[in-house]
Amino acid sequence: MKTMLTFVLLSFLLAGCSRRDATIQRELTGTWTRQFGNGFRITNVIAPDGSYQCQIVGLTNGTIDSLEGRLIAKNGVLIDTVTKDSDTNQQTPRVMQWQIVHIDRHELVLSGKVLSDKGAIKATFDKVER
After folding, report:
1. Are β-strands 30-35 and 121-129 bridged in parallel, bridged antiparallel, or unpaired?
2. pLDDT band at 114 (very low <50, low <70, confident <90, very high)
């Protein structure tokens, strides 16, 4: 009986997580930007299926880095699989994971140890289109 109860509770928990993941996936759809100083900007256009195109402008050498990939929400984590990168010094495919701190129709806040050996970084993106 305890095993059956545990199984039922776990099933409800997993169903709740997958519903939340589906909601996050829908809210990701659109255009998101992150502005830095000195003209450095990231613009990420995300399709309903999670595929995206990203441009990074304002790099010190004057180039524009273009990325393509897929973002999948799973258990409160955003899994970013980069499949194309115009920076040929970067390996593709590559996978990064971000903890989803907050998402709504206007703002996305992520935390992760992406590209940093000095601890977690926090990234805030603003939605500019639906």
Report:
1. antiparallel
2. low
